[in-house]
Structures are given as structure tokens and as C-alpha cells.
Specification:
This protein is mostly helical and 148 residues long. 78% of the residues lie in helices and 0% in strands. The chain is built from 5 helices and no strands.
Length: 148
């Protein structure tokens, strides 16, 4: 939880703030799931259409990506250090998603096989790992501190 003397959004910080780590984790997991759906739809659209005109972004994946980016920016106002890390990772994920989609359009335009979004998978995995770390570590911390 953020320091009560430094809340920026007032009531929103006190009601949503304690749960933001879990919101980020849910958004990171849902982003990975919608990435699979988006990749399947890109492949199907490329087979059905001629060129890249038929390929369009998956709206559900766009919503989870933007939600993750905006939630990480909000988390930055609550916890500055971990918020900066997750925001940079989410921004990197957003940029790789943008360029991976453009790469799928180039592959469809040149009648190439639609390749897996490897860069986005790595970026999404990093976001998921860090979101899991900031949300699950408080439960593991007592055991971790006993061992280390």
C-alpha cells in the first residue's frame, strides 16, 4: 500500500491501491491468453484473405495490452520503484506488440508463413514474471527470509 500522505488519486488509491499487484498479475495472464487468441486469428485471417488487408488487430488483446499499460502507470503512482520497473516492462510489451503485428502484416503481404510472435512472448513473459513477483512474494517472504 502506498504511503497515505502521498496519495495522488485520493479515494481511488485507498480502495483500489491494495489490490493493484493482483490486478497487474491478472492482466499479465490475460494478456498471454489473448496473445494466443490473436495469433490464431492472424493466421486464420492471413489464410482467408489475399495480402495484408484482411489482417486486423484482435480487440480483446488490444484491451488487455492497454489495460496492462495503464494499470502499470497507475501502479507507478503507488509504488515508485516497482511501478517504474513494471511500467518499463509494460511499455516494452506495448512496443513489441505493435511491431509484431506489423511483422505479421508483412508476412501476409509477402505470402510467407505467419511466424510466432517471439519478441512479444519474451516481453510478455517478463511482465508476467515481475507481476507474479510483486504480487506473490509477500506470501513467500517469511519462508524466503528464513532460508536466506
Amino acid at each position: 500500500m502506498a504511503d497515505p500522505s502521498v496519495v495522488i488519486f485520493g479515494p481511488l488509491d485507498t480502495t483500489v491501491g491494495p489490490y493493484m499487484e493482483y490486478v497487474l498479475l491478472v492482466l499479465a495472464v490475460s494478456n498471454l491468453l489473448t496473445r494466443k487468441l490473436a495469433f490464431d486469428s492472424y493466421r486464420k485471417q492471413a489464410q482467408e484473405s489475399d495480402g495484408d488487408e484482411g489482417i486486423s488487430r484482435n480487440p480483446l488483446h488490444v484491451v488487455t495490452t492497454w489495460g496492462l499499460l495503464l494499470a502499470s502507470f497507475y501502479y507507478l503512482t503507488l509504488h515508485h520503484h516497482s511501478g517504474m520497473v513494471i511500467s518499463v516492462l509494460a511499455l516494452g510489451l506495448f512496443l513489441t506488440d505493435f511491431f509484431e503485428f506489423e511483422a505479421r502484416k508483412v508476412e501476409a503481404r509477402n505470402d510467407m508463413a505467419i511466424d510466432a510472435p517471439k519478441g512479444s512472448l519474451v516481453a510478455s513473459s517478463l511482465v508476467l514474471l515481475y507481476a507474479a513477483y510483486i504480487s506473490v512474494f509477500p506470501f513467500v517472504a517469511p519462508l524466503w527470509n528464513d532460508i536466506i
